[in-house]
Design a protein that fits this description.
The structure holds two protein chains of two kinds.
Chain A lengths: L1 H27 L1 E14 L6 E7 L7 E6 L7 E11 L7 E8 L5 E7 L2 E3 L7 E2 L1 E5 L10 E5 L2 E3 L4 E4 L6 E5 L5 E7 L1 H7 L21 E11 L9 E12 L1
Antiparallel strand pairs in A: 2-3, 2-5, 4-16, 5-15, 6-14, 6-16, 7-8, 7-16, 9-13, 9-15, 10-11, 10-15, 12-14
Chain B lengths: L1 H25 L16 E8 L16 E2 L14 E11 L6 E7 L2 E3 L2 E3 L1 E9 L3 E8 L8 E3 L9 E12 L4 H5 L4 E14 L1
Antiparallel strand pairs in B: 1-3, 3-10, 4-9, 4-11, 5-6, 7-8, 7-10
The chains are: A mainly beta, B alpha+beta.
Chain lengths: 247, 197
């Protein structure tokens, strides 16, 4: 019995020494620790330039469906067509997220026209009406109106989403064409309500980011689809047309 | 007599309890704390927290990103002035003759064909050197790193917590700044690496 106790003790001691030695070896080299960050900046402009991105998913990591930039153009009026492919029923609840960025210090009007879904395998005959909701009674992560600066979301009260004068509601995309949803960036209202404190160190007043709408984001959730015409496990495609106008 | 003594003692005890309660109520809701930061030999870490400017008034307009390239707060001045865009922490405590260094790589701000050079000022505050700062200039060379401290070996250990990283443009004339392309999308990437043996 004693013999086994001694053997166990020696084994334990040997393992401890080996473990410490290994630990020392590992500790000899400092594993490089790396960190980093991105710098984002803008130059405000008098020439309106716009940026539109539409993607699926609740988070910003969602799949990008469309991205368009009005680089180098006079975008007083720009029309973009985007398409969103919704695959089978599991995708119905995914939100379509629309991001609009501009360095233009004036109001812009963005019209969004939704079109009904059609079946990819039979686009000419199978039309499915879809209802998009926004800023409505759904969960906050669907249809809510938010804005973001480079990934950080917050409530942007000056952006108005409206359908026919209403601040919230449903948009019905019918087979007759589509419904227009207006997103208005009321920059002037933002300026009026903003409390800008003049600097005391002699520097010129820096225009706040709030006065330059960099990125605004509206989310649109597909609220319902007429299941009578919907075939499970088929791919459906819908179109969203965006019109950007400076006003 | 004995009864009186007991009663008197009870009254005294009750008064003490009520006084204590009143005292406690007076400071009800008050709480304090002291953060304690500790580390052991052989410990090292580096962290960076970029500051997001929401423009909603909750944050100082003179800190964070994104920022306006024409803003006075990012124009060239004496070091270590500039706009605070991030916080960083550096803790190194190595034993023996081991050495360490921090390498910093910052790409130029880019949009389309426009590249803009700038300085980053890393403020440090640690025992031995006190308030200090490291200045890095951006580069278009992907492999270029600026190292701090510049000399290897027998360096002071550092515990510099939540110090500022500031941004400052090169010394450009107003005409040059006006010639920058208008955009909302100027971007640069900063990489910081702590290495040693």
């Amino acid at each position: 019995m004693k013999k086994w106790l001694v053997i166990s003790f020696l084994l334990f001691a040997c393992l401890s020494i080996v473990y410490s030695w290994t630990d020392l070896i590992v500790d000899e080299n400092l594993n490089p620790s790396t960190e980093g960050f991105n710098i984002t900046a803008f130059k405000e402009g008098t020439t309106p330039r716009f940026y539109i991105r539409l993607y699926s998913g609740i988070s910003t990591d969602g799949r990008t469906l469309f991205e368009k930039d009005s680089s180098g153009q006079d975008s007083s009026l720009s029309v973009y067509d985007v398409s969103a492919i919704i695959k089978n029923t599991s995708k119905i609840d995914d939100a379509l997220i629309l991001e609009i960025g501009t360095n233009y210090k004036r109001d812009i009007l963005i019209s969004v026209t939704f079109y009904p879904f059609v079946r990819v395998s039979d686009p000419n005959q199978s039309t499915v009406d879809a209802v998009y909701s926004f800023n409505g009674n759904n969960a906050a992560d669907k249809g809510s109106l938010t804005a973001t600066y480079r990934g950080e979301e917050y409530t942007y009260s000056s952006v108005i989403c409206k359908v026919g004068g209403s601040g919230s509601g449903d948009v019905t995309a019918s087979s007759l064409g589509g419904t227009t949803l207006e997103l208005k960036n009321a920059v002037s209202a933002k300026l009026g309500s903003k409390n800008v404190t003049p600097p005391t160190n002699g520097e010129s007043t820096l225009l706040g980011i709030g006065e330059n709408l960099l990125v605004s984001r509206c989310r649109f959730a597909i609220k319902s689809i007429n299941m009578n015409n919907y075939v499970t496990d088929e791919d459906y495609i819908s179109y969203v047309a965006l019109t950007v106008t400076s006003i | 007599m004995e009864m009186k003594r007991i009663l008197f003692t009870a009254i005294i005890i009750l008064c003490v309890i009520f006084s204590a309660s009143a005292y406690d109520n007076l400071f009800d809701g008050s709480a304090g704390g002291l953060p304690i930061l500790g580390f052991m030999d052989g410990y090292y870490m580096i962290t960076v927290d970029p500051i997001v400017n929401t423009g909603e008034g909750s944050l100082d307009l003179y800190i964070g990103m994104p920022f306006n390239l024409l803003g006075e707060d990012v124009s060239f001045k004496d070091f270590p002035l500039g706009r605070t865009i991030a916080y960083w922490s550096l803790v190194v405590n190595l034993k023996g003759n081991r050495y360490w260094r921090v390498g910093i790589h910052a790409t130029n701000l880019k949009y389309d064909v426009t590249e803009i050079g700038y300085y980053l000022i890393f403020l440090t505050d640690h025992e031995g050197s006190g308030d200090d700062y490291w200045v890095v200039h951006s580069t278009s060379d992907d492999s270029h790193y600026d190292y701090f401290p510049s000399a290897d070996g027998s360096l002071d250990n550092v515990a510099s917590i939540n110090d500022q990283i500031r941004f400052m443009l090169d010394s450009n004339s107003n005409a040059v700044k006006e010639s920058f392309q208008e955009s909302y999308d100027y971007r640069a990437t900063v990489t910081i690496i702590l290495e040693g043996s």
